[in-house]
Backbone:
């Protein structure tokens, strides 16, 4: 599990997980706010930094949405869309009710 929100203070022996989903989740994803004077990184910037060293897709999961995993099917649920980031590709949105297929 390689989170794109937090950097580990100490690295674990491995980032191997159960392998239930073939992507990384960026929980509580927030879109950049145009004209903001916030001097920190945006979520999108952090995900681009993650993709400088990793190939795994990232799902920007907004508040009020969730993923339903059943067998090999993964479906976005809730009202908000999710933002999908893949290395060297333009990010795109998926609507609730759509399957994630990587």
Residues:
């Amino acid at each position: 599990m390689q989170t794109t929100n937090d950097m580990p203070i100490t690295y674990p022996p491995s980032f191997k997980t159960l392998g239930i989903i073939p992507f990384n989740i960026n929980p509580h994803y927030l879109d950049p706010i145009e004209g903001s004077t916030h001097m920190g990184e945006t979520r999108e910037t952090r995900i681009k930094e993650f993709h400088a060293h990793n190939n795994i897709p990232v799902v920007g999961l907004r508040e009020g949405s969730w993923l339903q995993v059943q067998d090999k099917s993964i479906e976005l649920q809730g009202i908000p869309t999710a933002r999908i980031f893949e290395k060297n590709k333009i990010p795109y949105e998926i609507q609730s009710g759509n399957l994630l297929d990587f």
User: Anything to note?
Assistant: Residues 24-94 form one domain. The first strand starts at residue 24 and ends at 27. The two ends are 17 Å apart (CA to CA).
